Amino acid sequence: MTNCDLVVIGGGPGGYTAAFRAADLGRSVTLIEADDRLGGVCLNRGCIPSKTLLSVAEKIESAAAATEMGVAFGAPTLNLDALRAHKDGVVNRLTTGLAGLAKRRRVTVLQGTAKFTGANALQVQTPDGSRMALSFTQAIIATGSAPITLPMLPDDPRIMDSTGALALQDVPARLLIIGGGIIGLEMAQVYHALGSEVVIAEAGPQLVPGADPALLSPLTEALKGKVAVHLTTQVSDVRAEEEGLWVCAGAQDLGRFDRILVAIGRRPRGAEIDPAAAGVTLTERGFIPTGRDKRTSQPHIFAIGDVTEGPMLAHKAVHEAKVAAEAACGEKVEFDPRAIPSVAYTHPEVAWTGLTETRAKAEGIAVKVTSFPWAASGRALSAAVGAGTSRLILDPSTGRILGAGICGANAGELIAVAGLAIEMGATAEDLALTIHAHPTLSETLAFAAESFLGTLTDL
């Protein structure tokens, strides 16, 4: 039995942040990760490789769009090996950096799969099959999530999840993506830019569930003629044959595809570490309930990230990680954000934070929605990104900013301004009176605020 002080289970953004923060506060930390390198899904098989490929796709699309500005380029030549090497190089550089940060902080990193065997005990199975027993004083669970699968699909290597899609084994002539959420749309634009004919089958009534439908207009317009989108379409049967994968959605025949990407969401992986053995409870959906200080039903065990309720986002996990680490070290802290941003890194990007118009209607919250079209933005037009919009969700009586949404170039960067405004309790007047540089895309948020105040002169 190896005795440990603080154990962190999972080395993704939440896990390594918790480990590093606790080490900075003087704790002896053991970090357990099943993979051979830190970073979790986000760094190794998610956020970072997908954004690398999206950056390549954006360059291809920008070059094609440049003809409208009087500059013509030749057709792109795709070197798949070089593209994979570039993607892997970005990941390797970041994971190597994490290993260095762990070493500098004297965090002990163990590779293996952990399971609780008691309230203060773990068993870790290492890659060589051996088992080691650990005792601990405190633990932080950060085991993340895994893709949801469809059991009705045949067992066929041409059917892949997001990990397989990012491996970029080939560029299929015809690709079906089941699911029109953020992952599905991002991969749709990557594979379309690389040369695939892409079809999306989304079971729900809109793309990007969670975003306000009105916010998505510039994106849905941009997809026309590039990606075929079928809403309220649930795949019911897939027949695997040598010449391809034949797909039906009820009575609708979607045709033959060379590959299928299943992108219907993710599930928490909390149950995989046998939390019941430690006295940690799970919800019916498999999440670990926590308080605002991220303590579970066992006060000395914390949980963060995708294994807890809330959006499955790396930046949420990172902030929860710091709260858990600091609480474990005796500090009085809470995770109580007013706004958590969500971003689809599509072209154009879609970002929103705080209260949405859809949620306000569902909960009977009175709001005023104002917007500013990027077609009236000098910066957007000069950069040829005029298809966009900036929206604010406001308290009609006080003008307080409750939520915001942006669809357009660099929306993921711009939404931080709105997030800060919400956290600070700022009003439309605060935002409108903040002098923004001109011409910039950021001033479109100020224009939306001026629209609420009745002082807008740019429309």
TrEMBL record:
Domain Pyridine nucleotide-disulphide oxidoreductase dimerisation positions: 340-446
Record text on cofactor binding: Binds 1 FAD per subunit.
Required cofactor names: FAD
Active site per UniProt: H438 (proton acceptor)
FAD/NAD(P)-binding domain boundaries: 5-321
An annotated Gene Ontology molecular function: dihydrolipoyl dehydrogenase (NADH) activity
Disulfide bonds: C42-C47
Gene3D superfamilies: 3.30.390.30, FAD/NAD(P)-binding domain
Assigned protein family: Belongs to the class-I pyridine nucleotide-disulfide oxidoreductase family.
Note: The active site is a redox-active disulfide bond.
Protein name (record): Dihydrolipoyl dehydrogenase
Protein's organism: Falsigemmobacter intermedius
